[in-house]
Amino acid sequence: MSAHNEYAAFRSNYTKQWRHSFNASYTIYNLAFVWENDMYVKQSPSSPAARVTSDGEHNRILNGIPDWVYEEEMFSSNRALWWSPGGKRLAYAKFNDTGVHTIEYSWFGEDQYPTTVVIPYPKAGTPNPVVTLFVVDAENVTRVMPVAIPSSFNTGDHYLATVTWVTDERLAVQWLKRKQEHLLLQIYNFDGTSWTAGESLPLDQVNGWIGRFSPAEPVFATDMSAYLVMSDGKGYKHLHSVVAGKVHPLTSGPWEVVDILKVTDGGIVHNSSYYRMGCHGPGVPRFYLRNNVDGTEVNVLEDNSQFVELISDIQMPTTRHGTIKLRDFDIKYQLTLPPGFQESKKYPLLVDVYAGPGSQKANHRYSVGWSSYLASTENIIVASFDGRGSGFRGDKLMHAIYRRLGTYEVEDQITAVREIMKERFIDKERIAIWGWSYGGYVTSMALGAGSGLFKCGMAVAPVSKWEYYDSIYTERYMNEPLENADFYGSSTVTARAANFSSVQYLLVHGTADDNVHFQQAAQISKALVEKEIDFEAMWYTDEDHGLGEHVYSHISHFLLRCFA
């Protein structure tokens, strides 16, 4: 869309690239766009597109769009351009990937010879892209002004975390150190000729990382005050206001604010007549229009009644939540139970794990997925556990795995299984574990721990060694390899290969995975073969990190054979 939402670009011929990016054809009206890594601005439906940059080059210089690692780990978007509120100016980022090492993999396709896909992909401890920020005058695209990096960030690597317009003449930028323990929220003001640094707010995190995943974007009110979700003095992420560089807490307690949805003209407390409330669980999602004065329901916007009627004749599983109390912390759990569940019967158990930093699997959000199928059709109990490293319960629990991935979060899955096994309805001889991506890593690490608890496990697109994964994600939690060599060395799946002799293992990966590269699965495979351990593997040709629906059929068949 254009800055004022007056005109739009209509997309056609869509082709997916990475998680958020794609290639497409457009019919363009009055907006900024990127073509072959260069920026253009179109003022009206009849005017020609004005070129802003001319140095764009595939896999080397990118203007207005992020490179792979920024798209995946920092922006979660295929855009790196930001319109000012009035549409007078456009901020954009430039990424220089000339020093970034590349990953290459084959695309087999249908041709006589495969082609090679090449992606600049910074891995842990290797050179990062160099990012710079500019502002262009939308009415005079030759007037491009740089936004200077704060002097305290001139030495050492840094990241551009967020870009937020306050007014057409005021810009808020968050700069993040490569180690991701120090952040600077810098306000820039336009003085008529350049963007000068004004007030700033430094944020530091000791023995952890800034934000839950990446830094939260500030939200500004019309009085120029800002609102941030950040950790308070007790280590819980809460809402804070920032006025004249001073921080004031607005919420507190042993719970966490997840996100800021909106700040209205009056600030965080407003006089709107109505609001929409969505209930995503534990039942079928429903959405209501409510009165802002007394909270009474005005109208039901969506109650998903057709879906409720559709599943009314289907035996659906039930969900049980609970807490495993340990000496220093609690593990939250969620059990998906078969229809007609009976405490006196024995059921096989599948642990559905993710366990990545800041994640949450045991929750009250309504969902129908593979776990529902296993419980309702195959009479399998599916369990998920949130232990150390999980999110939304304070920094102490989440940061417990800082600089030591593959330790406590894996141990807590094993501990939780030992506790759940005490329930008489668990068949102790039929326990399995599975996960995807980070969950595939934890699955593999748990199987390789040699606990004797698991009969089998399925790892989909797992990490095997953190040196093989991207810099922003890995170093956020592990720092660089030279700073943390011992835990990098002890956190590999391959080092545990010998312990796989006592379990049935299924390894699944896509050959065109641009995120967790096929290299990761290949290294696990090589380590197991070197130890003369038999295992099953499924490679999905030309599939990326998402794979396809066939994977569920395949892992279902493997699981049922394991439990037979």
Automatic annotation (TrEMBL):
InterPro entries: AB_hydrolase_fold, Pept_S9_AS, Peptidase_S9_cat, Peptidase_S9B_N, Serine_Prot_S9B/DPPIV. The keyword Iron-sulfur does not apply. This is Dipeptidyl peptidase 4. It is found in: Cell projection, Invadopodium membrane; Cell projection, Lamellipodium membrane. Keywords: Glycoprotein, Hydrolase, Protease. Residues 31-264 form the Dipeptidylpeptidase IV N-terminal domain. It is a single-pass type II membrane protein. Signal peptide: none annotated.
